[in-house]
Amino acid sequence: MSMDEYVMVVEARPLMDKFGIYRGLDALGGEVADYILATHSFMPRRLAEADPAYKQIIPYVTVRCEGLWLVFRRKAAQTEQRLHNKHSLGLGGHITREADTAPNPILAGLHRELAEEITLEHGEPRYLGVLNDDTNDVGRVHLGLLYEVRAKSRSFAMPEADKMDARWMDAGGVRACFDTMETWSQFVIEQLVIDLA
User: Fold this and answer.
1) CA distance 35 to 29
2) Among the four residues 51, 96, 108, 142, which has the most C-beta atoms within 10 Å?
3) Cβ–Cβ < 8 Å for 44, 129
4) Are the beta carbons of 73 and 87 closer than 8 angstroms?
5) How many C-beta atoms lie closer than 10 Å to residue 140's C-beta?
6) Residue 77 predicted with pLDDT over 90
7) Cα–Cα distance, 97 to 108 (Å, whole number)
8) Beta bridge partners of residue 127, listed in sequence order
9) Helical (H) or strand (E) element with 116
10) Which residues are 122's β-sheet partners?
11) Could you give the CA distance from residue 176 to residue 19 in angstroms, rounded to a whole number?
């Protein structure tokens, strides 16, 4: 994605004050997405990345199948240098202005990101909550909307294998990768994976 591309943002302070969003995974309901859809705007990504007055909205999707999670590893060829060689429990991407013509731009962005990053058969996304972390440079300018999809089989392909690879892991394997995970993934592990065998 070009840094000059326009991405979906909302003003950070009114959003955080209205919903009391804190650091971590917050199981807030669909009213957050409704608020975002009603109040969002678009700005050049290069500006949004440097302006914590705005949160870029990122649909963040985990993939599960038969008690396993798909764990992704970001390679050095990927654009976002701050996430190189990090493991991730989800796929996320910006919502561009082109998605604003869809009935639900958030879901349109989610489906576009899935289609770009991985090829697999899956069911409809299920919304799980909000991801936020204002303690680092990446988190200060992004807000994640967490979704889960269930894969219909373990078969998948990575169209951009030079940028990212993936493998299935059980809960124990996911927990073992905790220290190498990006913070949003750590929140998901703490809230959704940690107690699963």
Assistant:
1) 11
2) 142
3) no
4) yes
5) 16
6) no
7) 11
8) 147
9) helix 105-117
10) 151
11) 33
User: Do 149 and 59 touch, CB atoms closer than 8 A?
Assistant: no
Among residues 73, 190, 79, 67, the alpha carbon closest in space to that of 138 is found at: 79
Q: Which of 8, 4, 1 is nearest to 46 (CA)?
A: 4
* pTM higher than 0.85: yes
Are the C-beta atoms of 166 and 82 separated by less than 8 Å?
Answer: no
Helix, strand, coil share of the chain (percent; to 5): 35, 30, 35
pLDDT at 197: 41
- Half-sphere exposure in the Cβ direction for 128 (13 Å, CA): 20
3-state secondary structure of 54: strand
What secondary structure does DSSP assign to 58-90, as a single string? EEEEEEEETTEEEEEEE-TTSS-GGGTT-EESS
